[in-house]
Give the backbone structure.
Amino acid sequence: MPGKIINLLSPEITKPKVSAAGRPPAVPVPASAVPKFDAPDILIPDNFWSNLKQFLTERPVRVRERKDAPFTQTSFGTGVGDNLRDFFSSSPAAKGPVNSKLAVAWGSNFGGFGTRIKEFFSPPKQAPLPFAVKPVKVKDIWSKDENFGWSQVIAVGLHVAVIALLVIPIFTNVLPASTEAKNKLVGVVPLDISPYMAKLPSGANKAGGGGGGNNHTLTPVSKGKLPKFQWTQFTPPQAKIQNLNPKLAMDPSLLGPPDLKIVSPNMANFGDPLSKSVTDSLGNGNGTGIGSGSGGGLGPGEGGGTGGGLFRAGLNGVGSPQCIYCPQPEYSDEARKAKYQGTVLLDVTVTADGRVISPMVIKGPGLGLEEKALSQVKNWKMRPAYGPSGKPVNCRVQIEVTFHLY
Protein backbone atom coordinates (compact mmCIF):
# COMPACT_ATOMS: atom_id res chain seq x y z
CA MET A 1 0.00 0.00 0.00
CA PRO A 2 1.57 3.32 -1.00
CA GLY A 3 2.57 5.62 1.78
CA LYS A 4 2.36 2.92 4.47
CA ILE A 5 5.43 1.47 6.28
CA ILE A 6 5.28 -2.22 7.08
CA ASN A 7 7.14 -3.31 10.24
CA LEU A 8 8.69 -6.78 9.80
CA LEU A 9 10.34 -6.97 13.21
CA SER A 10 8.81 -8.76 16.17
CA PRO A 11 6.91 -6.76 18.75
CA GLU A 12 9.58 -7.57 21.38
CA ILE A 13 12.22 -5.85 19.29
CA THR A 14 10.14 -2.89 18.11
CA LYS A 15 8.70 -2.12 21.50
CA PRO A 16 11.03 0.34 23.14
CA LYS A 17 12.22 -0.50 26.60
CA VAL A 18 13.03 2.28 28.94
CA SER A 19 15.62 1.79 31.63
CA ALA A 20 15.55 3.24 35.08
CA ALA A 21 17.55 6.21 33.90
CA GLY A 22 14.92 7.02 31.31
CA ARG A 23 16.98 5.96 28.24
CA PRO A 24 16.24 2.96 26.00
CA PRO A 25 18.88 0.16 26.24
CA ALA A 26 21.06 -0.85 23.28
CA VAL A 27 19.61 -3.56 21.11
CA PRO A 28 22.10 -6.50 20.56
CA VAL A 29 22.76 -7.41 16.96
CA PRO A 30 22.67 -11.17 16.21
CA ALA A 31 25.77 -12.72 14.65
CA SER A 32 23.83 -13.83 11.61
CA ALA A 33 23.00 -10.22 10.82
CA VAL A 34 26.68 -9.14 10.65
CA PRO A 35 27.78 -8.99 7.00
CA LYS A 36 30.84 -10.97 5.92
CA PHE A 37 33.19 -9.86 3.18
CA ASP A 38 35.71 -11.99 1.29
CA ALA A 39 38.93 -10.69 -0.17
CA PRO A 40 38.19 -9.19 -3.58
CA ASP A 41 39.86 -10.72 -6.61
CA ILE A 42 41.53 -7.45 -7.46
CA LEU A 43 43.91 -7.77 -4.49
CA ILE A 44 47.32 -9.37 -5.06
CA PRO A 45 47.52 -12.80 -3.34
CA ASP A 46 49.90 -12.82 -0.37
CA ASN A 47 51.59 -16.24 -0.32
CA PHE A 48 55.09 -17.59 -0.86
CA TRP A 49 54.86 -18.52 -4.54
CA SER A 50 53.02 -15.33 -5.50
CA ASN A 51 55.59 -13.20 -3.70
CA LEU A 52 58.45 -15.12 -5.34
CA LYS A 53 56.91 -14.75 -8.78
CA GLN A 54 56.29 -11.06 -8.21
CA PHE A 55 59.85 -10.55 -6.95
CA LEU A 56 61.42 -12.18 -10.02
CA THR A 57 59.05 -11.00 -12.74
CA GLU A 58 57.99 -7.57 -11.50
CA ARG A 59 58.41 -4.82 -14.06
CA PRO A 60 58.54 -1.10 -13.32
CA VAL A 61 55.54 1.08 -13.97
CA ARG A 62 56.74 4.15 -15.79
CA VAL A 63 55.02 7.41 -14.98
CA ARG A 64 55.11 10.40 -17.28
CA GLU A 65 57.33 13.01 -15.72
CA ARG A 66 55.77 16.32 -14.81
CA LYS A 67 57.53 19.50 -15.63
CA ASP A 68 57.18 20.76 -12.08
CA ALA A 69 58.31 17.43 -10.47
CA PRO A 70 60.89 18.22 -7.79
CA PHE A 71 62.87 14.97 -8.19
CA THR A 72 63.88 12.63 -10.98
CA GLN A 73 61.89 9.67 -9.61
CA THR A 74 59.62 8.56 -12.45
CA SER A 75 58.98 4.82 -11.84
CA PHE A 76 57.32 2.69 -9.18
CA GLY A 77 57.36 -1.03 -8.45
CA THR A 78 60.74 -1.62 -10.12
CA GLY A 79 62.33 -5.02 -10.71
CA VAL A 80 65.14 -6.86 -8.93
CA GLY A 81 67.99 -5.03 -10.62
CA ASP A 82 66.47 -1.61 -10.01
CA ASN A 83 65.73 -2.49 -6.39
CA LEU A 84 69.34 -3.49 -5.81
CA ARG A 85 70.58 -0.34 -7.50
CA ASP A 86 68.26 1.84 -5.45
CA PHE A 87 69.29 0.02 -2.27
CA PHE A 88 72.95 0.96 -2.67
CA SER A 89 72.37 4.35 -4.34
CA SER A 90 71.84 7.67 -2.68
CA SER A 91 68.71 9.78 -2.50
CA PRO A 92 67.13 11.07 -5.75
CA ALA A 93 68.72 14.26 -6.95
CA ALA A 94 66.67 17.40 -7.09
CA LYS A 95 66.02 18.85 -10.52
CA GLY A 96 65.96 22.42 -9.36
CA PRO A 97 65.05 24.64 -6.43
CA VAL A 98 62.59 22.78 -4.23
CA ASN A 99 60.90 23.33 -0.94
CA SER A 100 63.23 22.41 1.93
CA LYS A 101 60.44 20.70 3.86
CA LEU A 102 59.65 18.53 0.85
CA ALA A 103 63.32 17.57 0.44
CA VAL A 104 63.58 16.57 4.08
CA ALA A 105 60.40 14.51 3.90
CA TRP A 106 61.56 12.79 0.71
CA GLY A 107 65.04 12.12 2.07
CA SER A 108 63.64 10.36 5.12
CA ASN A 109 62.18 7.65 2.86
CA PHE A 110 65.18 7.28 0.56
CA GLY A 111 68.90 7.07 1.09
CA GLY A 112 72.00 5.15 0.19
CA PHE A 113 73.38 1.99 1.77
CA GLY A 114 75.66 3.97 4.05
CA THR A 115 72.76 6.09 5.25
CA ARG A 116 70.75 2.99 6.16
CA ILE A 117 73.66 1.48 8.07
CA LYS A 118 74.17 4.72 9.94
CA GLU A 119 70.50 5.00 10.83
CA PHE A 120 70.44 1.36 11.96
CA PHE A 121 73.17 1.86 14.58
CA SER A 122 72.28 5.45 15.48
CA PRO A 123 68.65 6.15 14.61
CA PRO A 124 67.73 9.81 14.29
CA LYS A 125 66.27 11.43 17.35
CA GLN A 126 62.59 12.22 17.26
CA ALA A 127 61.15 15.60 18.15
CA PRO A 128 60.46 15.97 21.88
CA LEU A 129 56.91 15.24 22.92
CA PRO A 130 54.85 17.69 24.93
CA PHE A 131 54.69 17.23 28.66
CA ALA A 132 52.45 14.45 29.99
CA VAL A 133 52.27 12.75 26.57
CA LYS A 134 53.24 9.09 26.55
CA PRO A 135 54.40 7.54 23.22
CA VAL A 136 52.50 4.53 21.95
CA LYS A 137 54.24 1.94 19.77
CA VAL A 138 52.25 1.12 16.62
CA LYS A 139 52.90 -1.00 13.57
CA ASP A 140 54.45 0.42 10.48
CA ILE A 141 51.94 1.28 7.79
CA TRP A 142 53.51 -1.17 5.34
CA SER A 143 54.16 -3.99 7.82
CA LYS A 144 52.66 -7.39 7.13
CA ASP A 145 50.66 -9.56 9.45
CA GLU A 146 52.87 -11.20 12.08
CA ASN A 147 51.03 -14.50 11.85
CA PHE A 148 53.36 -17.36 10.95
CA GLY A 149 52.08 -18.62 7.60
CA TRP A 150 53.06 -21.30 5.12
CA SER A 151 55.47 -19.01 3.33
CA GLN A 152 57.52 -18.59 6.51
CA VAL A 153 57.41 -22.33 7.17
CA ILE A 154 58.73 -23.11 3.68
CA ALA A 155 61.44 -20.45 3.95
CA VAL A 156 62.64 -21.75 7.33
CA GLY A 157 62.64 -25.32 6.02
CA LEU A 158 64.73 -24.39 2.99
CA HIS A 159 67.25 -22.54 5.16
CA VAL A 160 67.55 -25.48 7.56
CA ALA A 161 68.06 -27.90 4.65
CA VAL A 162 70.82 -25.77 3.11
CA ILE A 163 72.61 -25.38 6.45
CA ALA A 164 72.34 -29.12 7.08
CA LEU A 165 73.87 -29.90 3.68
CA LEU A 166 76.80 -27.64 4.53
CA VAL A 167 77.36 -28.84 8.11
CA ILE A 168 76.69 -32.59 7.92
CA PRO A 169 79.73 -33.40 5.70
CA ILE A 170 82.00 -31.75 8.27
CA PHE A 171 80.91 -34.04 11.12
CA THR A 172 80.41 -37.24 9.15
CA ASN A 173 82.80 -39.42 7.19
CA VAL A 174 81.75 -38.72 3.62
CA LEU A 175 85.28 -38.98 2.24
CA PRO A 176 86.23 -41.95 0.05
CA ALA A 177 87.38 -45.09 1.77
CA SER A 178 91.00 -45.23 2.84
CA THR A 179 93.46 -47.12 0.70
CA GLU A 180 95.45 -48.36 3.68
CA ALA A 181 95.93 -52.09 4.03
CA LYS A 182 93.50 -53.87 6.32
CA ASN A 183 94.40 -56.49 8.87
CA LYS A 184 93.13 -59.35 6.76
CA LEU A 185 94.63 -62.55 5.47
CA VAL A 186 94.98 -62.33 1.71
CA GLY A 187 96.21 -64.79 -0.86
CA VAL A 188 99.90 -63.90 -0.65
CA VAL A 189 102.52 -66.61 -1.06
CA PRO A 190 104.84 -66.50 1.99
CA LEU A 191 108.53 -65.86 1.36
CA ASP A 192 110.58 -69.05 1.55
CA ILE A 193 113.61 -68.41 3.77
CA SER A 194 114.54 -72.04 4.40
CA PRO A 195 117.73 -71.85 2.26
CA TYR A 196 119.02 -69.06 4.50
CA MET A 197 118.42 -70.89 7.79
CA ALA A 198 121.87 -71.40 9.28
CA LYS A 199 123.14 -74.76 10.52
CA LEU A 200 124.50 -74.18 14.05
CA PRO A 201 125.56 -76.56 16.79
CA SER A 202 122.85 -77.95 19.03
CA GLY A 203 121.68 -75.44 21.63
CA ALA A 204 123.32 -72.46 19.94
CA ASN A 205 120.26 -70.40 19.03
CA LYS A 206 122.13 -67.48 17.53
CA ALA A 207 120.72 -67.16 14.06
CA GLY A 208 117.21 -66.08 15.04
CA GLY A 209 116.10 -62.65 13.93
CA GLY A 210 118.34 -62.29 10.93
CA GLY A 211 118.04 -60.18 7.80
CA GLY A 212 120.06 -58.34 5.22
CA GLY A 213 120.23 -55.37 2.91
CA ASN A 214 122.45 -53.36 0.60
CA ASN A 215 122.95 -49.94 -0.94
CA HIS A 216 119.44 -49.15 -2.33
CA THR A 217 119.79 -50.59 -5.83
CA LEU A 218 117.02 -52.17 -7.90
CA THR A 219 119.17 -55.01 -9.24
CA PRO A 220 118.87 -58.35 -7.41
CA VAL A 221 121.83 -59.64 -5.46
CA SER A 222 124.67 -61.23 -7.40
CA LYS A 223 126.20 -64.63 -6.73
CA GLY A 224 129.41 -64.46 -4.70
CA LYS A 225 131.20 -65.33 -1.50
CA LEU A 226 130.16 -64.23 1.96
CA PRO A 227 132.17 -62.04 4.31
CA LYS A 228 132.69 -63.16 7.88
CA PHE A 229 130.04 -62.48 10.49
CA GLN A 230 131.00 -60.09 13.31
CA TRP A 231 129.01 -58.53 16.13
CA THR A 232 130.47 -55.14 15.25
CA GLN A 233 130.36 -54.24 11.58
CA PHE A 234 133.14 -51.76 10.88
CA THR A 235 133.29 -52.19 7.10
CA PRO A 236 130.21 -53.30 5.16
CA PRO A 237 130.73 -55.29 1.94
CA GLN A 238 130.65 -53.47 -1.38
CA ALA A 239 129.90 -54.68 -4.88
CA LYS A 240 132.73 -52.55 -6.25
CA ILE A 241 135.63 -51.33 -4.16
CA GLN A 242 135.54 -47.55 -4.17
CA ASN A 243 138.86 -46.84 -2.44
CA LEU A 244 141.70 -49.06 -3.65
CA ASN A 245 144.26 -47.59 -1.21
CA PRO A 246 142.52 -47.06 2.17
CA LYS A 247 144.47 -45.59 5.07
CA LEU A 248 143.20 -48.29 7.44
CA ALA A 249 142.41 -51.52 5.63
CA MET A 250 139.82 -53.79 7.23
CA ASP A 251 138.08 -56.88 5.97
CA PRO A 252 134.36 -56.44 5.19
CA SER A 253 131.93 -58.22 7.52
CA LEU A 254 128.26 -58.93 8.03
CA LEU A 255 126.35 -58.33 11.24
CA GLY A 256 125.79 -61.60 13.09
CA PRO A 257 127.28 -64.21 15.41
CA PRO A 258 130.96 -64.94 14.58
CA ASP A 259 130.46 -68.73 14.76
CA LEU A 260 127.75 -68.63 12.09
CA LYS A 261 129.11 -70.73 9.23
CA ILE A 262 127.51 -70.84 5.78
CA VAL A 263 128.89 -72.66 2.76
CA SER A 264 130.28 -70.04 0.42
CA PRO A 265 131.78 -70.45 -3.09
CA ASN A 266 135.36 -69.43 -3.76
CA MET A 267 134.73 -66.32 -5.82
CA ALA A 268 136.44 -62.95 -5.98
CA ASN A 269 133.36 -60.80 -5.44
CA PHE A 270 131.00 -60.64 -2.48
CA GLY A 271 127.40 -61.75 -2.87
CA ASP A 272 124.77 -64.33 -2.00
CA PRO A 273 125.92 -67.93 -2.42
CA LEU A 274 122.36 -68.99 -3.30
CA SER A 275 121.82 -66.37 -5.99
CA LYS A 276 121.87 -67.18 -9.71
CA SER A 277 122.48 -63.63 -10.92
CA VAL A 278 125.86 -62.41 -12.15
CA THR A 279 125.28 -58.66 -11.84
CA ASP A 280 127.50 -56.45 -9.72
CA SER A 281 124.96 -55.87 -6.96
CA LEU A 282 124.52 -56.75 -3.31
CA GLY A 283 120.73 -56.80 -3.53
CA ASN A 284 117.66 -54.60 -3.71
CA GLY A 285 117.14 -54.08 0.00
CA ASN A 286 118.38 -51.32 2.27
CA GLY A 287 121.06 -51.44 4.90
CA THR A 288 124.68 -52.58 5.07
CA GLY A 289 124.29 -56.30 4.36
CA ILE A 290 123.59 -58.57 1.41
CA GLY A 291 120.14 -59.48 0.13
CA SER A 292 116.65 -58.04 -0.09
CA GLY A 293 116.05 -57.25 3.57
CA SER A 294 116.94 -54.31 5.77
CA GLY A 295 119.92 -54.57 8.07
CA GLY A 296 123.49 -55.76 8.12
CA GLY A 297 122.96 -59.50 7.68
CA LEU A 298 122.22 -61.87 4.83
CA GLY A 299 118.99 -62.51 2.93
CA PRO A 300 115.47 -61.28 3.68
CA GLY A 301 114.40 -59.97 7.05
CA GLU A 302 115.67 -57.27 9.38
CA GLY A 303 118.60 -56.74 11.69
CA GLY A 304 121.59 -59.04 11.52
CA GLY A 305 122.43 -62.69 11.01
CA THR A 306 120.66 -64.75 8.41
CA GLY A 307 117.13 -66.00 7.90
CA GLY A 308 114.05 -63.92 8.60
CA GLY A 309 112.49 -61.92 11.38
CA LEU A 310 113.97 -59.56 13.94
CA PHE A 311 116.51 -59.71 16.72
CA ARG A 312 115.26 -61.39 19.88
CA ALA A 313 115.82 -59.53 23.13
CA GLY A 314 118.51 -61.17 25.27
CA LEU A 315 120.03 -63.23 22.41
CA ASN A 316 123.06 -62.72 20.17
CA GLY A 317 124.36 -59.83 22.22
CA VAL A 318 121.08 -57.91 21.97
CA GLY A 319 119.90 -56.19 25.13
CA SER A 320 116.36 -55.89 26.48
CA PRO A 321 114.14 -52.82 26.08
CA GLN A 322 113.22 -50.89 29.22
CA CYS A 323 109.88 -49.29 30.04
CA ILE A 324 109.73 -45.48 30.18
CA TYR A 325 105.99 -44.77 30.07
CA CYS A 326 103.83 -47.86 30.48
CA PRO A 327 100.39 -47.06 31.97
CA GLN A 328 98.25 -49.96 33.09
CA PRO A 329 95.33 -50.88 30.83
CA GLU A 330 91.76 -50.49 32.02
CA TYR A 331 89.66 -53.38 33.21
CA SER A 332 86.98 -54.71 30.90
CA ASP A 333 83.39 -54.51 32.09
CA GLU A 334 82.97 -58.29 31.96
CA ALA A 335 86.07 -58.97 34.08
CA ARG A 336 85.16 -56.26 36.59
CA LYS A 337 81.67 -57.64 37.09
CA ALA A 338 83.07 -61.16 37.54
CA LYS A 339 85.92 -59.86 39.76
CA TYR A 340 88.30 -61.77 37.52
CA GLN A 341 92.09 -61.39 37.61
CA GLY A 342 94.73 -62.73 35.27
CA THR A 343 97.80 -62.13 33.10
CA VAL A 344 97.99 -61.52 29.35
CA LEU A 345 101.19 -62.63 27.59
CA LEU A 346 101.98 -60.54 24.50
CA ASP A 347 104.68 -60.78 21.85
CA VAL A 348 105.50 -57.26 20.58
CA THR A 349 108.04 -55.47 18.44
CA VAL A 350 109.97 -52.62 20.06
CA THR A 351 111.39 -50.33 17.38
CA ALA A 352 114.70 -48.53 17.49
CA ASP A 353 112.90 -45.32 18.47
CA GLY A 354 111.05 -46.94 21.40
CA ARG A 355 107.60 -47.53 19.89
CA VAL A 356 105.62 -50.71 20.50
CA ILE A 357 104.12 -52.13 17.31
CA SER A 358 102.63 -55.40 16.00
CA PRO A 359 101.43 -56.83 19.34
CA MET A 360 100.16 -60.42 19.31
CA VAL A 361 98.43 -62.36 22.07
CA ILE A 362 100.19 -65.57 23.09
CA LYS A 363 98.07 -66.39 26.12
CA GLY A 364 95.23 -64.63 27.91
CA PRO A 365 92.53 -65.21 30.54
CA GLY A 366 89.63 -63.98 28.39
CA LEU A 367 86.69 -61.74 29.36
CA GLY A 368 87.96 -58.94 27.13
CA LEU A 369 91.29 -58.46 28.95
CA GLU A 370 93.30 -59.33 25.82
CA GLU A 371 91.66 -56.52 23.82
CA LYS A 372 92.34 -54.01 26.61
CA ALA A 373 96.00 -55.06 26.77
CA LEU A 374 96.45 -54.87 22.98
CA SER A 375 95.00 -51.36 22.77
CA GLN A 376 97.06 -50.06 25.71
CA VAL A 377 100.54 -51.38 24.85
CA LYS A 378 100.46 -49.47 21.56
CA ASN A 379 100.65 -46.28 23.64
CA TRP A 380 103.69 -47.38 25.63
CA LYS A 381 107.06 -45.67 25.29
CA MET A 382 110.14 -47.89 25.68
CA ARG A 383 113.89 -47.44 25.82
CA PRO A 384 115.02 -49.51 22.80
CA ALA A 385 117.30 -52.51 22.96
CA TYR A 386 120.89 -52.08 21.85
CA GLY A 387 122.45 -54.52 19.42
CA PRO A 388 125.97 -55.94 19.37
CA SER A 389 127.21 -52.85 17.53
CA GLY A 390 126.02 -50.57 20.34
CA LYS A 391 123.20 -49.03 18.30
CA PRO A 392 119.42 -49.28 18.93
CA VAL A 393 117.81 -52.10 16.96
CA ASN A 394 114.32 -53.43 16.36
CA CYS A 395 113.62 -56.52 18.42
CA ARG A 396 110.84 -58.88 19.45
CA VAL A 397 110.12 -59.29 23.13
CA GLN A 398 107.43 -60.93 25.25
CA ILE A 399 105.54 -58.75 27.72
CA GLU A 400 103.30 -59.79 30.59
CA VAL A 401 100.37 -57.50 31.39
CA THR A 402 98.85 -58.32 34.77
CA PHE A 403 95.28 -57.42 35.70
CA HIS A 404 94.44 -57.41 39.41
CA LEU A 405 91.77 -55.80 41.57
CA TYR A 406 92.88 -53.83 44.61
User: Anything to note?
Assistant: The chain has a mean pLDDT of 66. The radius of gyration is 48 Å. The longest helix spans residues 150-171.
